[in-house]
């Protein structure tokens, strides 16, 4: 069996001569093979049958009050919340099957504490939806696992920040505990605590299941009258100019028909830029590779909390009796040519880039050095210049809403943001102070500057470990 560090070394040297199949660094290629080809942890897909050649899963209506584009975390949460708020003449269009873009391979971590009161509220709502509301409404379990979360502090400054998070959490009733290194060792015996200053333990954090969450959300939305149509690609968005010269959404075009609608929600993930172009709307995000590796079984790891080590910029997610190890690199890989054919697909992992997480992970849980790697998961995710999502009505076209650019937090923010988007569409404004996420925070000259977006997105991705805990945003 290949152990984590030696396996990585072997793979990296294999890349140099000759290239090994799972780590071709030069080609940056992706596979269009289905899930199991790379041993991805989620064995179930939402539907086993290949519908690609069979057309849309339902007939298209002639008109709708709202058309949501994209059946990932954001699209499913948005249609669910719209339906729950009484907008039932609503249609979700997904070009492939639900979750096919980024959502199906998410790590699904949900931390409840962030250094912003609005974000704490958004996260709390997601947690309520997936751990309680959906189950009560549908009788189905979303796959939520409450295994807890542990933030690592290697210095006083970091622990002080966590104490502030704890105080903020108290206002919202979120249970958390500052633990000493010895208490941390009691909780997580496989952890190296020699270099720890302390930790913040949040017992009700946990892990979301993407397939279970999206299936349950769409079931609940459909039960209220919403229509979910898979295998139906949006190919155009018609825009009209009204008597006052204002541009407004008119209809959504697909190869299977046109739906008249005054309102479109762009929840198309890394494809959102293309959907924006169809309506003349700028969507300032970039697509990057984002990855984790799944280890072989680890004795004694079962039921441990998820771990986030901000100083080392790595996370360790519980995966049954194994771990998923991921992080934020200083030199992420951009996906410049976003392909329309990419569905339930992954990229080959670039070990030269991923290697930087190995030392931090092994330092935190030393048994990893002797643990094999079962699979690699490297997929596309969208990032923005300030590491905040893009939401709200586009200034260019009335009725064109954005719900995209989720910077590797679209599962945990999905519920809160889905509810805010629904409120925004129905009432013309969100319920919470969403200025930090509002697309209008970007001035026109910035959204025109692709280089600026790319450079800032790179910077905020690479600094994510620090931004997450230390920034007051
Ligand atoms: C490796 C990795 C780990 C992650 N870990 C976490 C985590 O632990 N916690 C967390 O909160 N987030 C995590 N994320 C991020 C999270 O998974 C994403 O932010 C989220 O899934 C994005 O959801 P979405 O709905 O915006 O996009 P997507 O899931 O990509 O959905 C967009 C959908 O739009 C569809 N579409 C595109 N074009 C069209 C068209 N023309 N017509 C119709 N449909 C179209 C696509 O097929 C796709 O299904 C992770 C991401 C990655 C890559």
From TrEMBL:
Domain FAD dependent oxidoreductase central, chain residue ranges per copy: 427-463
The FAD dependent oxidoreductase domain, residue ranges: 65-424
Positions with biased composition (Basic and acidic residues): 34-47
Molecular function per GO: sarcosine dehydrogenase activity
Biased composition (Polar residues): 24-33
Family matches, as InterPro entries: FAD-dep_OxRdtase (IPR006076), FAD/NAD-bd_sf (IPR036188), FAO_M (IPR032503)
GO annotation, cellular component aspect: mitochondrial matrix
One of the GO biological process terms: sarcosine catabolic process
Protein name: Sarcosine dehydrogenase
Gene field: SARDH
């Amino acid at each position: 069996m290949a152990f984590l560090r030696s396996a990585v070394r072997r793979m990296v040297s294999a890349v140099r001569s000759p290239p090994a199949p799972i780590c071709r660094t030069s080609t940056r290629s992706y596979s269009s093979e289905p899930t199991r080809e790379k041993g991805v942890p989620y064995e179930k897909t939402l539907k086993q049958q290949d519908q690609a050649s069979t057309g849309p899963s339902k007939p298209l209506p002639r008109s709708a009050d709202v058309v949501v584009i994209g059946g990932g975390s954001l699209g499913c949460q948005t249609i669910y919340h719209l339906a729950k708020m009484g907008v039932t003449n609503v249609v979700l269009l997904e070009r492939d099957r639900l979750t096919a873009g980024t959502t199906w391979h998410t790590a699904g971590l949900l931390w409840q504490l962030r250094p912003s009161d609005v974000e704490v509220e958004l996260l709390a709502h997601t947690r309520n939806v997936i751990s309680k509301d959906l189950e009560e409404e549908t009788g189905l379990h979303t796959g939520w696992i409450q295994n807890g979360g542990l933030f690592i502090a290697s210095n006083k400054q970091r622990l002080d920040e966590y104490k502030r998070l704890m105080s903020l959490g108290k206002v919202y009733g979120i249970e958390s505990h500052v633990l000493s290194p010895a208490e941390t060792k009691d909780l997580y015996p496989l952890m190296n605590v020699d270099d720890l200053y302390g930790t913040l333990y949040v017992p009700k954090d946990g892990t979301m299941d993407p397939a279970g969450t999206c299936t349950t959300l769409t079931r609940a939305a459909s039960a209220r009258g919403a229509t979910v149509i898979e295998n139906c690609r949006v190919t155009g968005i018609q825009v009209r100019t009204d008597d006052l010269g204002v541009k407004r959404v008119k209809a959504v075009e697909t190869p299977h028909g046109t739906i008249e609608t005054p309102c479109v929600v762009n929840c198309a993930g890394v494809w959102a830029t293309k959907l924006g172009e169809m309506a003349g709307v700028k969507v300032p995000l970039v697509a990057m590779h984002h990855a984790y590796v799944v280890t072989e079984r680890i004795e004694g790891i079962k039921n441990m909390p998820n771990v986030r080590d901000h100083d080392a910029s790595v996370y360790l997610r519980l995966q049954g009796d194994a771990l998923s190890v991921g992080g934020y690199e200083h030199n992420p890989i951009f996906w410049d040519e976003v392909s329309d054919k990419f569905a339930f697909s992954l990229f080959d992992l670039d070990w030269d880039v991923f290697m930087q997480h190995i030392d931090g992970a092994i330092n935190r849980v030393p048994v990893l050095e002797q643990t094999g790697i079962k699979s690699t998961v490297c997929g596309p995710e969208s990032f923005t210049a300030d590491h905040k999502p893009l939401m709200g009505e586009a200034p260019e076209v009335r009725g064109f809403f954005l719900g995209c650019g989720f910077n590797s937090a679209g599962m945990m923010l999905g519920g809160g943001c889905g509810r805010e988007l629904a409120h925004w569409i129905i009432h013309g404004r969100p319920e919470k102070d969403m200025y930090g996420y509002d697309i209008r925070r970007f001035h026109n000259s910035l959204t025109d500057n692709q280089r600026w977006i790319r450079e800032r997105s790179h910077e905020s991705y690479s600094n994510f470990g620090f931004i997450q805990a230390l920034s007051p945003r």
